[in-house]
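does this look right to u?? ME8 version
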Amino acid sequence: MADPFYITTAIHYPNGRPHIGHAYETIAADVLARFHRQAGREVRFQTGTDEHGLKMAQKARELGVTPRELADEMSGYFRDLFAKLNISHDRFFRTSEDEHHRASQALWRAMEENGDLYLDRYEGWYSIRDEAYYDESELTEGEGGEKVSPQGTPVEWTVEESWFFRLSKYQQPLLDFYRDNPDFIRPESRRNEVMRFVEGGLRDLSVSRTSFDWGVKVPGHDNHVMYVWVDALTNYLTGLGFPDDTEAMAKFWPADLHLIGKDIVRFHAVYWPAFLMSAGVSLPKHVFGHGFLLNRGQKESKSLGNTTDPGALADRYGVDVLRYFLLREFSFGQDGSYSQEAIVSRSNSELANSFGNLAQRTLSLIFKNCDGILPPVGIRTADDDALLAHVGRVIAKDMPAAYTDLAFAQALESWMGAVFACNAYIDAQAPWTLKKTDFARMETVLATLYVAIAQLALAVEPVMPTAMDKLLGAMGVGKDLRTPEAIRSDWYAPLETSDFRLAKPEGLFPRLELPEAELS
Ligand code: ME8
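got this back:
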């Protein structure tokens, strides 16, 4: 059995409804989870909501509800969205769950026992929107001349009694760790940012608050709640049953990958490893900070109120189309600008016209000319071998390497390259003409395409699970054949001689049109 694989997304703030960035990150994680499951690994995939903190407390006050009521309602929207987007998480985590309080307190105690927590007074700049403290030197001037954080959010001068974590003590251990684990932080640009930040010196971190009580209580000091990031990061452990010595901890920790956005890399690549070192818990293997999605070039955020409902996009264009588009269109580590025109045009050119049409043409020819009976393979030509070699290379080498590297756009580009090769082959071979001139050759051509299409469908199933499951099912490719090895084995001959009959093929991807309101 291959190694287990533990992947997490960030846990999302449920102070508003989910936006496209939440969908983007969770879909990417889902594709990886499905890809590794397909390869035979035992996968644990966790996502959820980050329900504590001042931001939640303030939002609830603004709406005249309790933070818990706000969290219950909003967390439900995230859960519903993930169900709609076909996210295959094993655990939807909520930080307001009791067991999470217990786990966060256990981590706290371990850090305290190690001498890394002390009580003092905090005076400094805090951004509620980022739930982050900033150094004076990091602040810039906003449009109205006010001080803003590096993320452009407002900061407030805050003074209160607070517990501190001895982050300064971990400067060198962190630098040593980055040096020894060069692919801990990815992409490279984020790693460089983090290294520069840590090399610049680390100040001890304020890790508790007394001005509100919506959070995890500091053990032995009930008037303090933990800084929201301390408990938020601990979710990755709680989900495995920490602090008890559970089977899940033994199997899945350290996490293989924390998949997060670029704005929260510092928390995952500096604070989190320092907390874990202090508590004597081993460190996660990789942190990947993906880029941000911009709506026609503009940042979408709950706080700015220009969000698109990703569920509505999925309803309008189809879940698989949205999943494909998001991973195909942008380079994963970089920002990308999306629009509904881009979704429609990508889907029409690549899914409807290229792959959909290839499958439809091939299966229809078999349905009509061979009465749905899979045609036998006669003498293979060099063209047939070249096509199968191209597809074989893409599904066995290029795509797995790109998925493993989180280079989704590259994986799908090589997939599209193979689809183009199949379309060029069908046009050159012209089975519709061979039908009259050389029936046996037509059979071989269609059989060759049948194998190529099934292989390409399986390779892209992590991205478009519903459509590919439907296609493979219609093609008689059973669940037992849906592994990278089995689909490359000789399954066609047994299927061809079985009593399987192809039913009239149904279109996979309809041609999309842009709604009137979106036409500019
Ligand atoms: O940061 N494009 O929660 P969050 C792509 N609770 N990704 C985006 C995005 C965009 N426009 N906007 C946000 C938090 N994200 C914390 C995390 S983890 C222990 C605690 C990403 O709801 C963002 O980078 O603000 C983050 O990874 C995730 O969405 C949740 O953001």
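The chain has a mean pLDDT of 95. idk if thats expected tbh
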